[in-house]
């Protein structure tokens, strides 16, 4: 049985292993990185796990060096991997990145540009 103190230990450790990725809690309180095609989960202090229910991704994940299968079913799979393979695994499952906040000076500039555009009948962001 997993205790709350173990969950509290896992969350910061997992967040440190996956820099730049958006970490959220699953239904049981464990940290995961959700992706469009799967999710990255905490396995232990030295390894991470990736889960996907997309059979077409099984081969792509197995081809990444350092990834080995843990559980393979007809329509879902779970693989274990070292943190060194994180970037490639995240790319395959299209993991979500951390949101970037706008710095205060940039926000003021964007607001001024939007106000100017509104008063002069121009789009706030020029088309490229």
Describe what this molecule looks like in 3D.
- This protein is α+β, with helices and mostly antiparallel strands.
- The protein folds into two domains: 4-97, Aspartate Aminotransferase, domain 1, CATH 3.90.1150; 100-128.
- The protein contains four helices and six strands, in the order αββββαββαα.
- The protein has helices spanning 4-17, 58-62, 86-93, 104-120; strands at 24-25, 31-34, 39-42, 48-52, 67-72, 77-81.
- Strands 1-2-3-4-6-5 form a six-stranded antiparallel beta sheet.
- The N and C termini lie far apart (55 Å).
- The mean pLDDT is 84.
Which features characterize this protein?
128 residues, elongated, Aspartate Aminotransferase, domain 1
Task: Put the structure in a nutshell.
The chain has helices at residues 4-17, 58-62, 86-93, 104-120; strands spanning 24-25, 31-34, 39-42, 48-52, 67-72, 77-81.
């Amino acid at each position: 049985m997993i205790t709350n103190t173990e969950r509290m230990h896992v969350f910061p450790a997992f967040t440190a292993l996956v820099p730049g990725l958006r970490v959220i809690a699953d239904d049981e309180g464990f940290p995961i990185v959700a992706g469009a095609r799967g999710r990255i989960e905490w396995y232990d202090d030295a390894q991470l796990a990736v889960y996907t229910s997309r059979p077409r991704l099984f081969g792509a994940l197995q081809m990444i060096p350092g990834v080995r299968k843990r559980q393979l079913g007809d329509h879902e799979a779970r693989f274990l991997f070292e943190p060194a393979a994180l970037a490639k695994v995240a790319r395959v499952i299209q993991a979500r990145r951390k949101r970037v906040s706008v710095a205060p000076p940039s926000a003021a500039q964007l607001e001024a540009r939007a106000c100017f555009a509104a008063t002069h009948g121009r789009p706030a962001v020029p088309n490229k």
